[in-house]
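As a point of orientation, let us examine one representative protein, giving the amino acid sequence and backbone structure tokens.
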Amino acid sequence: MIAIDPHHARAAGSGRIGDPAAFGRVAVVMGGQSAEREVSLDSGRNVLAALRARGVDAHAVDGIPALLDALRAGHYARVFNILHGQRGGGEDGVLQGALDSLCVPYTGSGVLGSALSMDKVRSKQVWIAQGLPTPRFVALRKSAAAGAHAAGDVHAAARELGLPVIVKPACEGSSVGVSRVLREADLDAAAALAARYSGDLLVEEMILGDELTVGVLDRQALPSIRIVPKGEFYDYHAKYVAEDTQYLCPGLDGAAEQDVRALALAAFDALGCSGWGRVDIMRDRAGRNYLLEVNTAPGMTSHSLVPKAAREMGIDFETLCWRVLETSFDREAGWGSGGQP
């Protein structure tokens, strides 16, 4: 059981931790076994260096099994989770449940927020129930998407929504397995690519307009970023490799900027998310916003967006990592004197 020091506990969005020793020994868990392993390793190296530069006793741990072994042995007081993705990726609620059971505080959303955010279909269903805007979609169960009727199902979905559409796995991030489909002839290849990944397949109405993202840190929406890739699509290459993608921050002005930030917070809250994250949004040519997804452990690479938005508010990378780690105290304080989630 982790003892809670009342001098270190803090109210969300208020008190700050001043002494790096207050964090105890911190595990920065990265890598893992998901399709986003390499991005996570890059993010983790950056976070580790930033925390150490601020005097935090931080250590790299690769993947969930190694982390749980170390925690059961009492090696760490808390966890900075920078794993990405599902099924060993640490972003789908599985790791969060294990950490709750061990009473180890951690960064990011809990079980519910992580699980809902990882599943784009369930995210959309929650948002629709809450009256929040999201592109129209058709979800294809994995048994159908991977079987003999996959092609017919995808074509039927595209006919229902109308081309162009986005075809993607319902439970992956970092644009893994995502295709923009402008012609019916390209649907089969797009479905085959998405079906390589676990989970359902999602066919989504393509919103033509601007791609925006809004970071959330400790109950505050950061300035939006408007993403302008050199090519037509903000794909994996544009996110992590290309140097010619433009990032305009803030992405909007005046009331439009306030509206998109408010929508991002509403989407974050609707899924039960907490701590920090990033909300991806499309804005059509008529100025209407549509929610795409929430990332509960956003990337922290040289190309990543939350650090760019934080810099706009005068928060450098080292401070951002510290601020994210501070949010782990909110979860610890919420357990109460019994030390239970």
